[in-house]
Specification:
Helix content: over 70%
Strand content: under 5%
Largest sheet: 2 strands, antiparallel
Length: 274
C-alpha cells in the first residue's frame, strides 16, 4: 500500500503507457479515421468533377453569339462572372484535395509499424527511467521524455483530426451546408445550361431562312435567350460559395488550427524546465 502511495504518479504513467500501446496496435481508431479521410477525399473529387463539368458547359455556352443588326450579344458576358467563380473554386478544391492527400500520408506515417515500434521503445525507456536513475542523466532523460510525449501526441492527434472534421461537419456544418445537396444543385445547374445551349444550337440548325431573318430583327428572342442562360445559372454562384465555405473550413482552416496547436504544444514541451 505504501508503495502505491509513494509511486502513484509513476504507476499512473505506466498505466497510461500501456493504454497507449494497446490503442496504437489495435488500430481501432485508425481504421475509422482512414475511412473518414478516404470518404472526404472521394467527396471532394466528385464535387471537383461537377464544378469542372459546369465550367465546361459554360465555356461552350460562352462561344454562343446572338447577332442583332449592328450589335452582337455574347452569352459569355452573362456567364463570365460565374465561370470566373468556378475557376477560383477549382483552385480551392485542388488545395482541399491536396490537404486531404497530405492527411492520408500522415495517417500512413503514424500508423506504420516502424513508428509504433519506435513509440513502444520510447515509452519503455521512459518507464524504466521512472524507477531507475543513472548518474548525470537529467538532460538526456528530460529530452527523451519530451520526444516521447510528442510522438504520443502525433500518433493520436492526426487520426483525431479526422474525427473532429466528421463531428463538426455532421453536427454543425451539414444542417446549413450539405455537400451532397449542394453538389446535386451544381449538377442541375450544369444540366440546365447545357440544355439551353443545345436547344439554341438545334434551333439555329433547324430554322428556315425566313425564320433566321425574322430572328435577326426580333429583340425579344435575344432577350429570352439571355434570360434562359441567366435563369439556368442563377443559383449556381450561391451553391459554389457555400461549397467554398465548407471545404475551406474542413480541409484548410481546421488543419491550420491543428498545426498551430502542434507548434505551441511542441514549443511548450521543450520550454518545460527552462
Amino acid at each position: 500500500m505504501n508503495f502505491l502511495v509513494k509511486y502513484w504518479d509513476k504507476i499512473l504513467i505506466l498505466f497510461f503507457s500501456i493504454v497507449v500501446v494497446v490503442l496504437a496496435f489495435s488500430f481501432a481508431i485508425d481504421i475509422k479515421a482512414k475511412e473518414i479521410i478516404d470518404d472526404s477525399l472521394a467527396q471532394a473529387i466528385v464535387v471537383f468533377g461537377s464544378a469542372k463539368a459546369l465550367n465546361a458547359v459554360i465555356s461552350l455556352a460562352q462561344g454562343t453569339e446572338l447577332d442583332l443588326p449592328f450589335l452582337t450579344v455574347a452569352i459569355g458576358e452573362v456567364l463570365d462572372p460565374i465561370n470566373d467563380l468556378i475557376e477560383q473554386f477549382s483552385l480551392i478544391m485542388l488545395a482541399s484535395m491536396t490537404s486531404l492527400g497530405i492527411q492520408k500520408i500522415l495517417m500512413a506515417f503514424v500508423t506504420n509499424k516502424i513508428f509504433n515500434i519506435v513509440l513502444v521503445f520510447c515509452l519503455t525507456v521512459v518507464n524504466i527511467w521512472l524507477f531507475l536513475r543513472f548518474k548525470k542523466d537529467e538532460r538526456v532523460r528530460s529530452l527523451f521524455f519530451k520526444v516521447t510525449v510528442i510522438l504520443v501526441f502525433l500518433r493520436f492527434a492526426i487520426p483525431f483530426i479526422g474525427f473532429v472534421n466528421e463531428v463538426t461537419y455532421h453536427y454543425f456544418v451539414k444542417p446549413e451546408y450539405n455537400i451532397e445537396k449542394l453538389n446535386e444543385n451544381i449538377v442541375k445547374a450544369k444540366d440546365e445550361v447545357s440544355k439551353v445551349t443545345n436547344e439554341t444550337i438545334m434551333q439555329k440548325q433547324q430554322s428556315s431562312f425566313f425564320d433566321k431573318v425574322v430572328e435577326k430583327f426580333d429583340s425579344d428572342y435575344y432577350s429570352k435567350k439571355v434570360d434562359e442562360y441567366r435563369d439556368a445559372a442563377e443559383d449556381s454562384s450561391q451553391y459554389i460559395v457555400d461549397l467554398i465555405t465548407v471545404f475551406v473550413f474542413q480541409t484548410i482552416l481546421l488543419p491550420i488550427i491543428f498545426l498551430l496547436v502542434l507548434y505551441y504544444f511542441i514549443k511548450g514541451i521543450f520550454n518545460i524546465g527552462r
